[in-house]
């Protein structure tokens, strides 16, 4: 298993056919990312992914303008509804506009667009419907120890609450088929959606696979990202959400 | 009857009257109105005849009437919290659905205005949409 995965990671992954790229929608939820969103969108556009959808989640800054200038389709939430809500907006839009493959991608530049072919190819080959990015699958990335501990705890939490075995429970890099997208209906507006979306994938019984991806922990992404202390709140949100569904 | 009893009894009678008139004008459902009336009457009985709480408490194995009142009010408060939380979540969901619809509609209108009309689907038939509206 590990060997197979490692070869997938190799740089020799063939570039995706243009038809695949044209029917792939990359959904980015962004809140106050004016400083970074343009470069993320440009990187994706430079790799010839024409459908980049940025959902500006009510940012008071210039996120929407920056994304639009960089060439993205921008959807604007008038008020902040949280990352889960923003992703669902992007997914709904992508499905309604005929995307065959939907990718969720982070706005802060922590994901590497070079990993996209490895994430998408198993779906176009018909092997799986869902590819979930994992930063732990075949390597030990550099990251603060507290972050590592929290992410480990999240993996255990997911095993207990959903019986899904993943190596990285809260990775925002996902690629999935149109059919899988239609089984997704994110109800948890804030950060707990990361567990919820995996639950819904799992319940759809569509085949999934984890793909090793590189995470760039820049000072920016660490500062912008979730604090480790937010983990308890996320877990609470998720459990309450399941209770009151 | 002391002053406290008189005041609280007047308050409860007023609340019961308000509940009744609201029920007759159809502003609250009958079952809900009945529940509130029951609460006001039980409160009234406990105020007029405080010893009654002791009788009930004893029969439930609780020593004092005041303890019974405390337990019951804490339980009712918890039930209330959950009810309000459920309402809150529903409201939250509805706002999100509204904001989502606005975001998508505006983007589609902007795309149309820019003359780059995309092949949009018939919205009412698309499952992704009907899922949101329900």
**How many helix segments of chain B?**
5
How many separate domains make up the residues of chain A?
1
Sheet/helix structural class of chain A? alpha/beta
Q: What is the β-strand count of chain B? A: 0
Can you give a write-up of this model?
The complex is a heterodimer of chains A (245) and B (134). Chain A has helices at residues 2-9, 18-22, 37-46, 63-69, 83-96, 116-124, 145-162, 178-182, 193-204, 219-224, 231-243; strands at 24-30, 51-57, 73-77, 101-106, 130-134, 174-177, 208-212. Helices cover 44% and strands 16% of the residues of chain A. By secondary structure, chain A is α/β, with parallel strands linked by helices. Residues 1-12 of chain A have low confidence and may be disordered. Chain A has a 7-stranded mixed beta sheet, sandwiched between helices. Chain A has a single domain, classed as Spore Coat Polysaccharide Biosynthesis Protein SpsA, Chain A (Alpha-Beta Complex), CATH 3.90.550.10. The radius of gyration of chain A is 17 Å and the shape is globular. Chain A starts with a helix and ends with a helix. The longest helix of chain B has 49 residues, at 65-113. In chain B, helix 1 runs antiparallel to helix 2 (30-48) and helix 3 packs across helix 4. Residues 116-134 of chain B have low confidence and may be disordered. Chain B is mainly α and 134 residues long. Chain B has helices at 3-24, 30-48, 51-59, 65-113, 127-133. Chain B contains 5 helices and no strands. Chains A and B meet through strand 3 and helix 5 of A and helix 4 and helix 5 of B.
Task: Write a brief structural summary.
Chain A has 245 residues and is α/β, with parallel strands linked by helices.
Topology summary:
The complex is a heterodimer of chains A (245) and B (134).
Chain A: H1 2-9, H2 18-22, E1 24-30, H3 37-46, E2 51-57, H4 63-69, E3 73-77, H5 83-96, E4 101-106, H6 116-124, E5 130-134, H7 145-162, E6 174-177, H8 178-182, H9 193-204, E7 208-212, H10 219-224, H11 231-243
Parallel strand pairs in A: 1-2, 1-4, 2-3, 5-7
Antiparallel strand pairs in A: 4-6, 5-6
Chain B: H1 3-24, H2 30-48, H3 51-59, H4 65-113, H5 127-133
Helix pairs in contact in B: 1-2, 3-4
């Amino acid at each position: 298993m590990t060997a197979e995965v490692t070869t997938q990671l190799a740089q020799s992954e063939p570039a995706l056919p243009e038809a695949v790229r044209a029917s792939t929608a990359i959904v980015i939820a962004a809140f106050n990312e004016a400083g970074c969103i343009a470069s993320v969108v440009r990187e994706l556009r430079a790799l010839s992914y024409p459908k980049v959808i940025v959902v500006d989640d009510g940012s008071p800054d210039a996120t929407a303008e920056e994304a639009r200038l960089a060439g993205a389709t921008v959807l604007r939430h008038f008020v902040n509804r949280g990352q889960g809500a923003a992703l669902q907006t992007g997914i709904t839009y992508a499905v309604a506009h005929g995307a065959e493959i939907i990718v969720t991608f982070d706005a802060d530049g922590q994901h590497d667009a070079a990993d996209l072919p490895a994430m998408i190819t198993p779906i176009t080959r018909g092997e799986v419907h869902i590819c979930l990015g994992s930063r732990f699958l075949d390597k030990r990335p550099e990251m603060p120890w507290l972050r590592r501990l929290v992410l480990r705890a999240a993996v255990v939490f997911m095993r207990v609450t959903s019986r899904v075995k993943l190596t990285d429970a809260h990775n925002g890099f996902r690629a999935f088929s149109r059919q899988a997208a239609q089984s997704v209906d994110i109800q948890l507006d804030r950060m707990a959606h990361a567990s919820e979306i995996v639950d819904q994938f799992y319940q759809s019984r569509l085949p999934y696979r984890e793909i090793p991806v590189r995470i760039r922990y820049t000072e920016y992404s660490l500062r912008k990202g979730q604090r480790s202390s937010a983990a308890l709140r996320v877990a609470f949100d998720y459990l309450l959400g399941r209770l009151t569904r | 009857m002391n002053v406290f009893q008189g005041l609280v009894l007047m308050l409860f009678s007023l609340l019961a009257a308000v509940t009744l008139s609201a029920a007759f004008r159809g502003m609250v459902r009958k079952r809900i109105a009945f529940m509130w009336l029951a609460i006001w009457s039980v409160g009234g009985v406990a105020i007029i005849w405080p010893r009654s709480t002791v009788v009930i408490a004893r029969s439930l194995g609780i020593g004092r009437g005041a303890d019974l009142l405390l337990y019951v009010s804490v339980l009712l408060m918890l039930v209330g919290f959950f009810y309000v939380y459920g309402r809150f979540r529903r409201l939250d969901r509805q706002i999100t659905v509204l904001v989502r619809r606005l975001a998508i509609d505006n983007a589609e209108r902007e795309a149309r205005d820019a003359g780059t009309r995309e092949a949009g689907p018939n919205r009412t038939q698309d499952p992704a949409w009907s899922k949101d509206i329900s």
